[in-house]
Amino acid sequence: MLSASKQETVCFDDIVSRNPHVLTAARLAHQAALLGHHVLIVGEQGTEKELFAAAIHNASSRAQNSLIELDCFYLPSTLLEQILFGRQVEKELQPMMKNCADGTLFIQEVGSLPLVAQSRIVRAIQLSTLLLDGGEAVDFTCKLIGSSTDDMLPALTQTVLWLPPLRHRKEDIPLLVHKTIDEFAAAFHRSLNSISDEAMNALIHYPWPGNVRELNTIVGRCALLAKGEMILTDHLPKAIQRARKSKYAAHGTDVPPPEDVLSLATVEKRHIQKVLDITGWHKVRSAQILGIDRSTLYDKIRRYNLVNRGESMMNEECGMKSIGNHQ
Predict the structure, then answer these.
(1) What is the pLDDT of residues 271-301, one digit of tens each?
(2) What is the CA 120 to chain-centroid distance, rounded?
(3) 6-24 burial, b for 16+ CB within 10 Å, e for fewer?
(4) Using one digit for the tens of pLDDT, what is the confidence trace for 30-60?
């Protein structure tokens, strides 16, 4: 979660990326901010959804009004409804929906919000009138930004942004690392300004289950440990060092092994599998990225015997039957 001071100053220039999917999301987000559209941001935990939400709000006509943030994941449904719509005596505990009547409401994990509360929010936005518990009616022109780790059908006409996990945007790791180093050096008046090639190589090839949030935390920790101007491999957590050594041990080298010469069919198979994995096996979105129609994509999935590995692993762990892929 961004601090209040950071939240107020975030802009789209703070989103650093060379990844085409992230750049597309940023372009759509900026357009949505200028047009005042409601937005749904889809991505794994730690993929900078909060950064996008703050940038959208600050680029919109509502930048001078409140950006109110609510994380639904850890709160029980009864408390959520009270926070949003309930009557409170103390002024500072006014219902959250009332406090953001002319601003922006950012709901994290919007799918965890009770359906009744979702319906009340949608109705308030559609009618420009918020009905609170107890019957009080408030003028309401709030814009909604929702985030979710799962693709979902939006209840409102809105812009949907999809943010890929860090393991699928490796080209951005050097950019993000240097951004964090620069921010750390400026905040703590340190001369730290670089990272060794070996350390950067280890970071690039780590799978990053916690995404950008985990990367920022790790680089910040390394910056604290570094004594001079450079982050070294020894400053990295042992898990990242072990992963790096394990990856290249079979080749007797500390650098990535050369790619084998592959057949065109193998390249196509790997690329389609990668796109499907990146989109969470959302076949409509995958077909659009690949530039083919959905029936062609289904044919290639069957021909190459492609598998939704994430779903298969989950079913193996939980002992559950597959509930099917996104259509």
Answers:
(1) 898 888 888 788 888 888 888 888 889 989 9
(2) 26
(3) ebeebebeebebebebbee
(4) 999 999 999 999 999 999 999 999 999 999 9
In DSSP terms, 158 is beta-bridged to 38
Nearest-CA neighbor of 219 among 238, 205, 199? Answer: 199
DSSP state of 261: P
264-318 domain in CATH 3.40.225?
Answer: no
Other CB atoms within 10 A of residue 149 CB: 17
Inter-CA distances, 66 with 205, 230, 283, Å: 40, 40, 37
Q: Which residue has the tokens 């985990």?
A: 214
Paired tokens of 209: 């289950």
CATH fold for the domain made of 167-251: Helicase, Ruva Protein; domain 3 (1.10.8)
Asked if the 4-164 domain carries CATH number 3.40.50.300, the reply is: yes
Side-chain-side CA neighbours of residue 66 (13 Å):
13
